[in-house]
Design brief:
CATH class of the largest domain: Alpha Beta
Largest sheet: 7 strands, mixed
Bound molecules: pyridoxal-5'-phosphate
Oligomer: single chain
Number of strands: 12
Distance between the termini: 49 Å
Number of helices: 14
Strand order of the largest sheet: 2-8-7-6-5-3-4
Order of helices and strands: HHEHHEHEHEHEHEHEEHHHEHEEEH
Length: 383
Amino acid sequence: MYADRIKNLPPYLFAAIDKAKQEARARGVDVIDLSVGDPDLPTPEHIVKALNKAAGDSSNHQYPSYEGKLTFRTAVAEWYRRTFSVDLDPKSEVLTLIGSKEGIAHAPLAFINPGDAALVPDPAYPVYRTATAFAGGEPLIMPLLKENRFLPDLDAISPEDSRRAKIMFVNYPNNPIGASADRSFFKKLIDFARDYNIIIMHDNPYSETYYDGERSLSLLEMDGAKDVAVEFHSLSKTYNMTGWRIGSVVGNAEVVAGIGKIKSNIDSGTFGAVQDAGIVALNSPNEVVDRMRKVYKHRIEILYSALKDMGLELDKPRATLYLWAWVGGSSIEYTGHLLEKTGIAATPGVGFGKYGEGYIRFSITQPTARIEEAVARLEKMGK
Ligand SMILES: *Cc1c(COP(=O)(O)O)cnc(C)c1O
């Protein structure tokens, strides 16, 4: 009954842990679920108010425009200008998305012919790989290894693969690893893309969740980036708006136009009221995001210390909502064991690709009191 593109999906490796969570709950275990990255904090009230008002505006009740409201796209461009000193033309270099996942999933359809290839990192957000395959393309894996600071080793990509690849996905600050990229990597990436005529798709939903005072980079800050790259950005993580489904893709105008062409044949845009509220979100006072950073920073510090004290090997992430701990051996077995012993659910690293094996991911998107409870349980479990 099903098409090959569905039949050939990789096995859903989180199924085992989902089942174990359900079984533990059925046994009466108070499960602390640190396996999903979905902010627990509510959307700030001024944004909710803006939605309520915009929902009553009848001009928002008809089909929205395919490319998004010019007012929203202008707000995105102004936000990039304020945040990264990046200039964008809201008309040609910004496209509204129904969440960045939607844009990422549709993007390969604009650039990949059957048999073409895309360079995708491993471990990674699974959408890069499945979206490539849905377009008939072949994902070429770039392992993210600790010895390379979890950055793809561009020198290790064979000349054939480099020539075959039409696009490359990258994501820093990174989910699931929590690693960040520096300017020298981004510079190398742009040179590589130019040499091999590859479109870089940088997924950047965690640019604002950083904790060491030094802001995360946009790839578009780099000289020449707009010649080869687009960046996906999202309001989901920055403003606790995962349920609202709004984001954007910005950068190279031809690439943006290609994604827009696909989208205009699939969806009919983002609800206007959500875009109006998105404008208010992007113009939020700095305190709004500062407050969120403070909460997450505290959670990371305490969970990091507890995992370290247990003898697990991990880096303290300077950004994102994730801790990526080396456990050795089977990550599925370890998460099962952890759930059994402590009632804490984490994500097995192998669910993000084979190079994630041996690691487990903890998310900090549960209320602080629950993270404190998890820390107490980990201390009790000991080594
Ligand atoms: C959360 C997340 C997204 C998706 O965000 P939406 O804008 O809510 O679709 C994309 N990429 C990564 C790596 C994420 O973690």
